Amino acid sequence: MSKDANGLFTATDITGLTLRNRLAVAPMTRVSASEDGTATETMARYYERFARGGFGLLVTEGIYTDQAFAQGYLRQPGITNEAQSQAWRPVVDAVHRHGARIFAQLMHAGAISQGNRFRDTTIGPSAVQPKGHQMEFYYGKGAYPMPTAMTEEQIADAIEGFATSAARAVAAGFDGIEIHGANGYLIDQFLTDYANRRDDRWGGDTRRRTTLVRAVFDAVRATVRAGVPVGVRISQGKVNDFSHKWAGREQDAEAIFGALAEAGASYLHVTEHKVWEPAFEGGRDSLVALARRYAPHVTLIANGGVQDAARAQEVMAAGADIVALGKAALANPDFPNRVRAEREVTAFDPTILGPIANIKPSELAA
């Protein structure tokens, strides 16, 4: 094993949960559940490949949290009832057989839902037209619909959905919970200045716009037992506004990361297009470095553009404890084993995500 890889294979822990190394699989939407939102045998085999390939931690694709407005994509998995919960058990067991850990990422799509079998309308913090267009490789087409501004009751229901789904995830055997607060989905919409124009307790300046994510965190933390890690994924860019940057720059980073550290997050999962680059034009520090500065005692997972061991080590040197791979993991489900053996890493082939970004038979081959 090369010197570039040494630091990636030391054990670490997240609030007492031991991970065998510093390499994780990032959450990636794969629209391969049954139409009713239950996880499938194909999904179990897909996740098992990463565990068998040596990753220490896997974070699932976004799992919808209620039978109202949470679902974002057709054939997205949910965890809203006992049947959906139990369908995840074979996935979890397959991962555990190979010594890896798996966290359930809980997600509410909010205003950028483009496929929901429970509702034909969308909701968000405010009645603001989402930027961009629906993603065709997730069965979408055309502009996002205009959302309705959420009522207090709908906000309470969304928070409850996260909490009850977290309980179901733990009952299904998941090792931890990741709250999806990134990439343009509901929690990120509340964090975003142009999407959240509310003048009540859920809106206002950046610190006030963290009210929802803190409320969701508190509800989840109160629902699951103390030893279960509960983290939050945070980004600037969004699936419908890829180049978005926080207007308040470092002050916004301080407000968001500081609020989550104060809330007691077990970890923060920071994602950028190229996670090692400066977070803001003309700046010096990456979002990883800013997260480390303003949440100094919180475990930090970094995701975005990392393709090799040397870059992963660079990101860890900037402050990350764990590096999560997305496209590199799709191309190399055995990335950790390859790096250990000093074998060549395969380049990512984007055709794997087209025309629909579902799990392909080739991804399940031995």
Walk me through the structure.
Keywords: Flavoprotein, FMN, Oxidoreductase. It comes from Methylorubrum extorquens. GO terms for molecular function: FMN binding; NADPH dehydrogenase activity; oxidoreductase activity, acting on the CH-CH group of donors. Its EC number is 1.6.99.1. This protein has 366 residues and is α/β, with parallel strands linked by helices. The protein contains twelve helices and twelve strands. It has a single domain, classed as TIM Barrel, CATH 3.20.20.70. The strands form three sheets. It has an eight-stranded parallel beta barrel, surrounded by six helices. The protein has a two-stranded antiparallel ribbon with strand order 1-2. A two-stranded parallel sheet has the order 6-7. β10, α9 and β11 form a beta-alpha-beta unit. The protein is globular and about 55 Å long.
Quick rundown:
With 366 residues, the protein is an alpha/beta fold.
What structural class do the secondary elements suggest?
A: alpha/beta
Q: What percentage of residues falls in helices of 4 or more residues? A: 25-40%
Tally of alpha and pi helices: 12
**What would you report as the Rg, rounded to the nearest angstrom?**
19 Å
Task: Count every beta strand, where a strand is a DSSP E run of 2 or more residues.
Answer: 12
Strand % is 5-15%
Given as residue ranges, the uncertain stretches (5+ residues, pLDDT < 50) are none
Distance between the termini: 24 Å
**Assembly form of the protein:** single chain
Please, what is the CATH homologous superfamily? Aldolase class I
The sequence of SSEs as H and E is EEEHEHHEEEHEHHHEHEHEHEHH
* CATH topology assignment: TIM Barrel
- Biggest β-sheet description: 8 strands, parallel, barrel
| CATH architect. name | Alpha-Beta Barrel
| Integer count of domains | 1
- Give the CATH class: Alpha Beta
Cross-sheet strand order for the largest sheet: 3-4-5-8-9-10-11-12
Shape by Cα distribution: globular
Arithmetic mean pLDDT:
97
